[in-house]
């Protein structure tokens, strides 16, 4: 279900299944997953980064593709040409937005 542009949610059952599967794949509790598209070899690949509840990156050697595919399958209507953040607690997928620090945006005096 889409709640606003760039934001998607799944139901409680799907959210719980995703959280359980991500924990199995990563070997520990996952709080957030970031999926980022990258051009490689003439095509697009998706890089996945898992983040723990303590905001530490969880290594995904050899399984990043599986993690990306799992999240993409749950959100087929998302715009996968953009980076996406998935929150395992809320089941919310949103476009990843990088905010420019004020000092780089010319707002610092």
Describe the 3D structure.
By secondary structure, the chain is α+β, with helices and mostly antiparallel strands. Helices cover 28% and strands 31% of the residues. It has helices at 12-26, 64-74, 102-105, and strands at 2-4, 7-9, 32-40, 43-51, 57-58, 84-87, 92-95. It has a seven-stranded antiparallel beta sheet, with helices on one face. The longest helix is centred in the first third of the chain and has 15 residues, at 12-26. The chain is globular and about 45 Å long. The N and C termini lie far apart (44 Å). The mean pLDDT is 89.
Features:
single chain, 109 residues, alpha+beta, seven-stranded antiparallel β-sheet, 7 strands, 28% helix, globular
State the low-pLDDT regions, or none: none
Average pLDDT works out at: 89
Can you give the helix content as a percent range? Answer: 25-40%
Question: How would you classify the quaternary structure?
Answer: single chain
Largest sheet: 7 strands, antiparallel
The share of residues in extended strands comes to: 25-35%
Distance between the termini: 44 Å
How many strands appear in the DSSP assignment?
7
Strand order of the largest sheet: 1-2-7-6-3-4-5
The outline comes out as globular
Helix and strand succession? EEHEEEHEEH
Radius of gyration: 15 Å
Structural class, from helix and strand content? Answer: alpha+beta
Number of helices: 3
Note the topology.
Layout: E1 2-4, E2 7-9, H1 12-26, E3 32-40, E4 43-51, E5 57-58, H2 64-74, E6 84-87, E7 92-95, H3 102-105
Antiparallel strand pairs: 1-2, 2-7, 3-4, 3-6, 4-5, 6-7
Helix pairs in contact: 1-2
């Amino acid at each position: 279900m889409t709640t606003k542009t760039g934001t998607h949610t799944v139901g409680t059952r799907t959210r719980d299944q995703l959280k359980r599967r991500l924990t199995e794949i990563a070997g520990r509790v996952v709080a957030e997953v970031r999926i980022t598209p990258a051009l490689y070899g003439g095509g697009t690949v998706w890089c996945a980064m898992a983040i723990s509840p303590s905001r530490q990156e969880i290594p995904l050697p050899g399984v990043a593709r599986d993690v990306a595919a799992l999240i993409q399958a749950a959100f087929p209507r998302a715009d996968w040409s953009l980076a996406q953040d998935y929150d395992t607690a809320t089941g919310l997928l949103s476009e990843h937005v990088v905010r420019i620090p004020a000092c780089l945006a010319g707002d610092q005096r």
